[in-house]
Amino acid sequence: LAEGPLAGRHVLVTSGPTHEPIDPVRYIANRSSGAQGTAIAAGLRDLGARVTFVTGPATVPPPPGVTVVRVETAREMLAAVQAALPADAAVMAAAVADWRVANAAGQKMKKDGSGKAPALEFAENPDILATVSRMTEGRPRLVVGFAAETERVEDHARAKRDRKGCDWIVANDVSPETGIMGGSENAVTLITDAGAEHWPRMGKDAVARQLARRIAEALA
Ligand code: C5P
Predict the structure, then answer these.
(1) Which of 87, 108, 139, 211 makes an SS bond possible with 135, Cβ 3.0 to 4.6 Å?
(2) What is the mean pLDDT of residues 85-113?
(3) Whose CA is nearest to atom 4 of ligand 1?
(4) Domain 10-98+124-219: top CATH class
């Protein structure tokens, strides 16, 4: 049996990008590696939590010792999250595509020789973080979202926390000059009810361990 401050707790973590199909062989994606979500799942596991790790097609492998649920699209991710509940806490670290292709083709799209390019239409994806945060029954006690911003990080993160209805936001600056996106380090601001905490720049593993400790304290 697991030991540690999170023993007996179930924590749900989303991670990685989503892939949104254009046709059976093509998709729209983003550059999320899944590194931070993977580290958080490992950090929670190390404190004794039972972790369900719902991951899109990430470039880093999922951590051992957690229940892995692999998904492709945002809609699949939402369904997997709902199937994995109830949970004591949910950490939504996935980089979910905001839009899916509304007119995705059932067969591989072909050039028809006319020289005319196809036009993609988009439809908004469900917001998984907002959906879970606003559950009226069976809401996890602690819902944590992420905010990747390139400017006015704290302001945008506070607004995001209010808009989505989550308890905490882990905000970071993903401007290209920071090297954070796809890199091994992160510099985050944790937004809670009590205000904003600026954490020093540290490895993504260290951010994950510290966040897991804070989650354990909040659930204690
Ligand atoms: O709105 P934005 O994408 O910046 O919000 C980021 C946060 O919301 C992350 O925690 C992300 O996992 C979550 N999110 C989600 N479902 C979406 C979009 C974002 O869960 N469709």
Answers:
(1) 139
(2) 97
(3) 147
(4) alpha beta
